Amino acid sequence: MPRIRDIAQICKSKNAGPFLVTIDVLFEDHAVYREVKATGVLNAALFARLYGVPEEDVLFTPYDTAAAFKATLPRLVPAGDIGDTDVYGAQQHAPLLDVEIPINPPAP
Fold it and tell me: Domain tally for the chain?
């Protein structure tokens, strides 16, 4: 089963202010995006589980026109606060990379 790292062209995270982080998953191939969306694997509950936040605090949005998913969620430690290890939020996408998606992998 392919993982996000295998099928998404871009998977990145960034600050959305000092208390939030945004994670974007973008697909070059709209057909692959539609398959991924149809599985329902990428959703607010998944992000809540991966990042240890309440599901109701996750704003999850699929963007069909851009073949992308966006999730905005609270940071466990505010940016720049004691204990923050990623002030820019640029490494927060890592847990998502190994999520398996039950689709047939696209041909290389």
Answer: 1
